[in-house]
Specification:
Elements (H helix, E strand, L loop, with lengths): L1 E2 L8 H32 L6 H12 L9 H26 L3 H5 L6 H31 L9 H12 L8 H25 L9 H31 L10 H12 L8 H26 L2 E2 L1
Antiparallel strand pairs: 1-2
Helix pairs in contact: 1-2, 1-3, 1-10, 3-5, 5-7, 7-8, 8-9, 8-10
Amino acid sequence: MTFAGCEIVQAMPFLEFIAGSISGAVGLAVGHPLDTVKVRLQAQSVYKGIFHCMAKTYSNEGLHGFFKGMAFPVLTTGITNSVVFGSYSNALDYLTQSQRCERNQGKPASAAQVFTAGCFSGLVQVFITAPVDLVKVRLQGQTTADRYRGPFHCVAVILKKEGPRGLFRGGLALALRDIPCYGLYFLPYEVTRKALTESNKEPGTLAILMAGGVAGVVTWAFATPMDVVKARLQMSGAGGREYRGVLHCMRVSFREEGLRVFFKGLLLNSLRAFPVNAVTFLSYESLMRIFCPPTR
């Protein structure tokens, strides 16, 4: 089997960023309502559980309440996800000294190479994600529109009250969450996809969906504790409890709510992660097949 798309290998870095951009927007649209419930469960202590939070959100705000903060991420998630997939793929090219099409022909990357490339992509995207995620969390966390009228108003308020540094509130927690977890994100995807694909054949739709879903669930299982800390730090400048930093937030949260506080939203993260990441990876792989089509 040969790959005609390898003739455009010089364009691959750019194409990988484009595919990542589109797939990220698709995945976000699928998972945002559950993400809103997760943020509220993690950052606020007024909800008894998932269904209570959903019921209160719907009764007080209607369906619109589940989509708060979505506009800004939709506009920017293309950039974020393109950085994640583009950085990962290009880092893997560098580490393996091979191209994507060569790895698909039976020269897979090692687990260590996949993990390292994933960690690199997590590091790079933090610089873009931190301000976007902050705005998203603050919009999702407010139950009325008395503080922020929208994403751009939220940015303006943060800059006015906290300065440019305010846009990176919770950034350290985000980095501690994303750098190792993006390594874990791509590793189970590659392993599962390979296990469900016959030797020397292209992975089918089901294999990609399952591998993407598994990757999402595994990643969030490790990411949730730091995700809770991140959400609390981000909300601390918007009427939430004030924390001096990551360790202070962890100590106070543990002292007041016990170990289980770090797993708030884990079930919801897992339920959301499977379909979101299944769709994201399927979109990405489908686009890459269009950009670099296999021919027998």
